[in-house]
Amino acid sequence: MRLDSRCGIRRIGRRAVLGLGLGVALGARLGLAQTDPIRERPKENDLLVAIGGPGAPQPLKPDDLPPGGKPTMAWPMDPQASTVRSGSRLNKVLLLRLDPDRFDPATKDHAADGVVAYSAVCTHAGCDVVTWHPDRRLLECPCHSSVYDPMEGGKVVSGPAPRSLPALPLKIADGRLVVAKPFTGRAGFQQT
Question: FRET label pair with 81: which of 19, 101, 109, 132, CA 20 to 30 Å apart?
Fold first, then answer.
C-alpha cells in the first residue's frame, strides 16, 4: 500500500491486488480439495472397485482375484454415496490374493480371505508398483527396481525404497472386500 500525497488516501498497488486475488483463489481451491469426497483417503467400510472396469463400478469379492495371480488395481468407494475416491493417486490400492498360510502375523491381521491390499504408490519416488513376480511372490516398482514382499507386510526386499508399502487392512462383508481401517502408514513418497 502507498499513501497518495494529494488526498491522504491509501492506495493498494496492482501487485497487492493480484496477490490477494491469487491467495483467495488458492485458499478456496485448497479448501475444496480437503473436503472433496473423491480425494478423501480410504475410510473404514469403503468398498473396493477395480480401476478401469467396464460399466458402473462393482464392489470386488475375493473370488474376483485370481489366487497367486497378477495384482488388481482398485479404488476405494464410499458405500453410501457410491463415490469412487479416485481424485488422488495416493488412494490407488494394489490387491493380491495369496496363500494366507505363508503370511507373517502382521500381514494375516490385515488380510481377508487371503487378499492383501497395499498402497500402489512406491515409497521411493512415487511410481506405481505394477510388476508382479509370481515365481518369487514379490512386487517390483519398474522405475528404480524397489522390490516388496506382500506376504511380509509389504517390506522392502531390495532397492532404494526407504520404507514398506503401507497396508490397507481388509475385512469381508456380504461377500465383498471392505476397508477395515485406514492405511497403516502414509501413502506415497517423501520428497527430499
Answer: 109
CATH code of 47-179, in short, is: 2.102.10.10
Please, how many CA atoms are within 13 Å of residue 8, restricted to the half-sphere of its CB? 0
**What is the chain's Cα-based Rg?**
22
Q: Domain coordinates of the chain in residue numbers?
A: 2-35, 47-179
Helix (H/G/I), strand (E/B), else coil: 75? strand
**Closest-CA residue to 91 (of 47, 27, 152):** 47
**How many CB atoms sit inside 10 A of residue 83's CB?**
18
**Distances 48 to 4, 7, 113 between C-alpha atoms, Å:** 62, 66, 15
Single pTM value for the model: 0.81
pLDDT tens, residue by residue, 139-168: 999 999 999 999 999 999 999 999 999 999
